[in-house]
Amino acid sequence: MKEEITLSLDSYLSFRLEDETFAVNVGKVLEILEVPHLTKVPRSPEYLRGVINLRGTVLPVIDTRVKFGLSATRFTVDTCVVVLNINVENDKLVIGALVDAVQEVLEIGEDQIKPSPSLGSKYQSEFIRGMVKMEEQFIMLLNIDRVFSTDELTVVKESSGDLTH
Amino acid sequence: MDHLKAVFVEEATDLIGELEKSLLALGQTINSPAIEQVFRVMHTLKGNSAMFGFDAMSECTHQLETVYDLVRTDRMDFSEAILDVTLASVDHLRHLLTDAGLADARLRANHVRLLDQIGALSQLSAPAEIPPEAHPSPVRTGYLVFRPHPAIMVNGSNLLFLLDELHALGDCRVNAHSRHIPPLEELSVETCYIHWDAYLATAASEASIREVFLFVEDVSDLEIHWVSEGNLLVNEQFVAHLEEQYLTGQEVNIKELQAYVNQLLAIIREKTLAQYPGAKEVDPRGQRETGAVSTIRVASDKLDDLMNLVSELLTTQARLNLIAADSAQSELVAVAENIEKISRQLSDSTFSICLVPLESMLTRFQRLVRDLSAELGKEVRFAAEGTDTELDKTLIESLTDPLLHIFRNSIDHGIENPEVRMAGGKPRQGTITLKASYAGNHVLIQIQDDGAGLDQEKIRAKAVSKGLVPAGAVLNEKEVCDLIFQPGFSTAEKVTGVSGRGVGMDVVRRKIADVRGEVSVTSQRYVGTTITLKLPLTISIIDGLLVRIADTHFVIPLAVVDKCYETNHALLTNTFSNLVVLDGQQVPFFYLRTEFDVPENGPAIEQMVVVRHEGRRIGLTVDAIVGEYQAVLKPLGRLYKHLSILSGATILGDGTVALVVDTGQLIRECSPPVLQMAR
Fold first, then answer.
1. What pLDDT, in 10s, does the model give residues B133-147?
2. What is the distance in angstroms between the Cα of A115 and the nearest Cα belonging to chain B?
3. If you measure CA to CA, which chain B residue comes closest to A61?
4. Domain A2-153, CATH 3.40.50.150 — does that match?
């Protein structure tokens, strides 16, 4: 029930990666941080930039640019960590996503959202919920659960096996 | 009512657990305290379950109670058959707790079948009913005065025999009163001048006392006064009083005596109360439990919360220390130190609360050994040593599955069939021993069987056929044994319901590694196999050595650190063999900057932390050693779960994150492939 309410919110947080603007539903956003001290974790894939201390819990930080096929994030004053609450395989997971800049919160009605063109888009359509045209600019609404889903994040799939045999 | 019912279910679960334990003890040696215990538990369960409407359960326990009552009163011999049925019932009772109304058809069928079996058991006993023994009356102390008439001796009675008979009734003190004996010249040998009084503590009734004097009834007077409950003659003070009075030669005044006794009893009662406060409240159930430590039950969630708070406190305290160290205020430093001391004590005692003795999981193993050996037609005895060894509660939970698996393997692959054992000159019955002990910061758990041992040739052949090792690989005994931990390895010729599906020991090793433990195996052909688990005492807080590589901090568990050295950067990088000479010994090392993909330009003087790994010393290079650090282990989360070289992260006083290294795994992963193959 609660889930439905958060998903039906019409507010979206927009952020920038390189020159393109993306947006996620604010129901998914827990907070926005300046980039704190990042602890690099050795032997982890490039898109995992490291871990930070979020009030006593260890939070993994994902380089969203790498996820989207861009070069790794170079830290500027605008670089932010967006703390997201995502659902992965019926499990809640809190992650931090590095973005080049956070822009604004937009009110977008369901009727304004157009389906993303399946042809000509460089992003797989399953990651994009839809597109919105605002002031001569297209904003891509992300299906954040899919973008950061575990299958795409972890390179080594955990081999399954149990002790019950 | 629902709340009470929940309490009942919880209690019943405990009781059933207790029951199972006693039953398994009975399976090893039959002793009457265990039978009494089973009987009592059945009785309690019967009463409680009936009260809360668990009728099926009450019915079942009632029948069982009858059986155990027969055994208890020696009207029936305790047999394996009884034990089997009772154990089956134990499982059934557990099910009944969740399905009181027998809604499940299978459960209902099982219920009927069990009741029949139990009924059959009680029929077995000799139906001859022994009349219930008269309830023995409690011991009382009485004062007797026996005055024979002077003519009593005329009919030839020997009065001393009567007194002997009186002694046979209980504790007795007889005093003869001879004041009336005349001077010798007046004495008539046929006249009795003496009378006696006696103090008798006996359970016999007044009638039976009078029976002693039955034949002299007509020629004597007998007075009996009951003065007290219990045996007063064991009271030294009372006896002393009697002797004193006897020496005065005065006749006993019964009223005075009674008054004295009452006074004495009051004193005794006061003394007992002072010695055992609450002694009066002790009920029979309480007496049985004397010696047990007084405990309270706490939901494990609450303990987890407490543990988390303590962890938070330690992290915050580290931060406070850092601030205090930077500040010029000496008062702040003093307070910070005090808080450090207190929080360390607090964390120590919180850990000890969260420790659970290994014994708590023993019943399951005992049961597994019993059931499985019967199923496989083997005879196996289960023994346990050091079961008071305590482990973190969460550790115990994550240990159960791996241990059960090891037990299954031991029974299935290890212990041979009785015939094979006999042929090999071993006792028919195999033995599996669980040994637990402390070893420094670790707990060692060994599962030892006296079975066939690992077949080196078979393991090697299997590993080669599965492509785990190249055909010509040179492996020593230990390396061959270690092959059983490889994924996809299984030597069982046929797949039984028990083991041999190839997911086994590798999962055990992984599960144990998850809690920062290690598994190893030693085996001797035809003699037996020992599997050793080495586990950390706690899994949430570790004492570590804080080191730095570039700008990342790492924590190396102090338990594995052997020694630290300073080394020259050039010496480390210009080597082919990755060996360095320390204290005159060649030590292999790993250059962590390379292993961790940190761009190469370490300081000219680097630190070498030498750690122990599987009996060898191995060096790990770091830029700098910061110091000792008590690290609160935090999970890295599922995104990093494939990263086995780290066991977690911890938050430093300045708020940054340090990574906790699992050195065993790190060394394993960094080892060149040849070495890995041999593992």
1. 444 567 778 888 888
2. 31
3. B639
4. no
